[in-house]
Write a structure and sequence with these properties.
Blueprint: H1 2-20, E1 24-28, E2 34-41, E3 45-51, E4 54-61, E5 66-74, E6 78-79, H2 83-90, E7 102-113, E8 116-126, E9 129-144, E10 151-162, E11 179-190
Antiparallel strand pairs: 1-4, 1-11, 2-3, 2-11, 3-6, 4-5, 5-7, 7-8, 8-9, 9-10, 10-11
Length: 191
């Protein structure tokens, strides 16, 4: 009888351990997720904009300290608040959205501090070119959503990179900086 109880207890502990180490899937919540960019303008001011249409998914296994994220951005949805500037950003001079309508970030190397994500290493594909990018978490938190009654995880992630690596060369000849700062505010709902 003792062996049976011990075996059942061991099986229950093993099952519990496996359940805790399972990956959890989340869908990007588009009304609370934005990718914004900042780039200097002749050393005088900073141009800012965001992309309004995006989708994606996140998988996190906090026990195993692993994860995967895939985000797709409709580059033509760029929004600076100025229609003429948006049109120029969509043109062949800059993003060439007729040829390259989508940008993607795919990351599968998560860095954790406890159960909080502190960075995600992956690749950014923009204008048909792919390069490594690290998104550093300035904030990360998971909580029960009070209205949806499901877990929501999210945070603010930042990176900076040389835009010319992706062929976004406009203005370099005029002294515009090559480096662009990107901030991704993301919320994702447990599925």
């Amino acid at each position: 009888m003792r062996v049976s109880l011990f075996a059942l207890a061991a099986a229950a502990a093993l099952t519990t351990g496996l359940a805790q180490a399972q990956a959890v899937n989340y869908a990007i919540e588009p009304t609370h997720t934005f990718a914004t960019f900042e780039i200097g303008h002749l050393g005088v001011s900073t141009n800012r904009g965001r992309f309004d249409k995006k989708s994606g998914s996140v998988t996190i296994d906090r026990a195993a300290k692993t994860g995967k994220v895939d985000i797709s951005i409709d580059v033509a949805s760029v929004n600076t608040g100025t229609a003429a500037f948006d049109k120029h950003l969509r043109s062949a001079d800059i993003f060439d959205t007729d040829k390259f309508p989508t940008a993607t970030f795919s990351g599968d190397k998560f860095t954790f501090d406890g159960d909080k994500v502190t960075a995600v290493d992956g690749t950014l594909t923009l204008m048909g070119k792919t390069a490594p990018v690290t998104l550093k978490a300035k904030n990360f938190h998971c909580t029960m959503h009070p209205m949806l009654k499901r877990e929501v995880c999210g945070g603010d992630f930042e990176t900076a990179f040389d835009r010319t690596v992706f062929g976004v060369n406009y203005g370099v000849q005029y002294g515009f900086p090559k480096d662009v700062r990107v901030v991704i505010q993301v919320e994702a709902i447990k599925q």
